[in-house]
Amino acid sequence: MLGLGTEMLAALKERFAAIKVGDPKDEATLVGPLSSERALEGLLRLIEDAEAAGARIVHGGNRVDRPGFYLEPTIITDIGEDNPLYQEEAFGPVLSFYVVNTEEEAIQLANATRFGLGGYVFDADVEHAQQVATRIEAGMVYINSCFADSPSLPFGGVKNSGFGRELSELGIGEFLNRKLVTVAP
């Protein structure tokens, strides 16, 4: 990993180290608990399997020592195509970090999964970012932001990440049974 990738990884490690994990009712908390013991155990197993398959945990990867289902914010890199993490969605505070040489490689990597819930594009050139976003196979793509969900925006994925949308006007349509009635002249 050279140049910008190394700098980015170092900056991410610093940011992850500052994340407060804890009570979601505390405004200073950025990461709360997972939904269940089963969800936590599944993520810990995925992290362990990823490491056994050659990935490198550069930050976190452990259960937080407190009551509840808390996982340290985790960064994993050196994830090969044969690694289980390459094809799985880690539903929790786990960042899979890849370094690519070209935009085309980045788009291929983003689409090289059977899932497609959400994606992110960061670029100072917003128009260019929008062009890249159209090539990412996901139900939602955010540009220059993360976790910008709101009830006014539709939520949902493609591929094995779901069918249909919830929230917003588009989401309400999923609950309607529209009927066409026509009258011949």
Query: What's the quaternary structure here?
Result: single chain
Calculate the terminal CA-CA distance, rounded to whole Å.
Answer: 70 Å
**Strand content of the residues, in percent?**
5-15%
Within the largest sheet, what's the order of strands? Answer: 1-2-3
Q: What is the general shape?
A: globular
In total, the number of domains comes to 2
**Which percent bin holds the helix content?**
25-40%
The biggest sheet, with number of strands, parallel, antiparallel or mixed sense and barrel status, is:
3 strands, mixed
Protein structure class: alpha/beta
In CATH, what is the class of the largest domain?
Alpha Beta
User: Mind telling me the CATH superfamily name of the largest domain?
Assistant: Aldehyde Dehydrogenase, Chain A, domain 2
Query: What's the CATH topology label of the largest domain?
Result: Aldehyde Dehydrogenase, Chain A, domain 2
Total E-strand runs: 7
The radius of gyration is: 19 Å
List segments where confidence is low: pLDDT < 50 over at least 5 consecutive residues.
Answer: none
CATH architect. name of the largest domain: 3-Layer(aba) Sandwich
User: Count the helices. How many?
Assistant: 5
Helix and strand succession?
HHEEEHEEHEEH
Chain-averaged pLDDT = 90
Protein name: Aldehyde dehydrogenase domain-containing protein
Organism: Planotetraspora silvatica
Keywords: Oxidoreductase
GO molecular function: succinate-semialdehyde dehydrogenase (NAD+) activity
